[in-house]
Amino acid sequence: MAPIRVLQIMPAMDAGGMETFVMNVYRAIDRTKVQFDFLYHYDKPCFYDEEILSLGGHITKLTVRQDNNLPRYLHALDAFFAAEPQYRIIHGHYSGFGMFYNRAARRRGIPVRVGHSHNTAYEPGLVGTLDRLMSSRFDRLLTDRFACSEKAGQMLFASHPFTVLPNGIPVDKFAHPDPSARAALRAEFGVAEDAPLLGHVGRFSAQKNHSGLLDIFAEVHRRRPDARLLLLGTGALEADIRAKAESLGLSDSVLFAGVRSDTAACYAAMDAFLLPSLFEGLPVVLVEAQTAGLPCFVSDTVDRGAAFADGVQFLPLGSPAAWADALCGEPLVRNPNALAQAKAAGYDVRTSAQRLQEFYLRRYAEVEA
Asked: 0.85 cut: is pTM over it?
């Protein structure tokens, strides 16, 4: 029997937290029973394209986020669903355009329309305002709902019940950091073994608050001139952050590493992980960093339910000195119980994948009965 094919609807499949979670599940799911295909809203090469194809997935790329041509998008949606009648389940991770693709899917007779909430707030400014207005209609045509946390679900699904599904990761990959990987990465980045290497993983966007992160690091660097800050990711604000690092005299101490596939080795190289975000759902990178045993310093705007391991501190935004006090006050020691704590909290991706697989198979059987 051929596997059922579930359409995952995304903005695109670059190396973000939401995308990483979907790929973690995709790798772990039994693909003889459930196969993923993908519908993007950008027509561009993406970080995970090659791997998706290698796993047997199909990718369709639309252009609406580049040309803003809504009539063309609506026509393409209708044509796509008309040409692909095999889909009985779609899983939407992109709430802003859900009012369009859910309607098109329902019109073409797709009975199971799943929505997934991955955040607890919207970007500031006009983009965030538009996203909020469009997302307010996401909930209306859904048949099933998932969220990465209670707060994420409450934000998007205020009037309907939802299921919390933790952002699972391959826990064994991140636990027990490899000393040889640590030494190699620190040598690559030019960081002495006895120098504190602080790390952050995230796209350069307003939400991730890299500007505030530099203010924090400037205070740490004033106290520990040998400290270094490792930034993994790319994004629209990267040039601005590079300019700010230069204006603060930190160009030689802030390491812009881009998007890398060896994130587990990067966590091994770090001595602490910083996440000063303005808001988050349940950040995959924080799950990874905790599982790697790192001391984690997190803004108090992030849901405290995201902490499952020892060594997580929540700190106020707007107070770089408080962060520097926490980072410089005590030795930065890894948590030896991180793997057991990650598994106990349900963050093993094998658990997440099994839950989703059972859901897809059950709902498919119900609608095909």
From this structure: yes
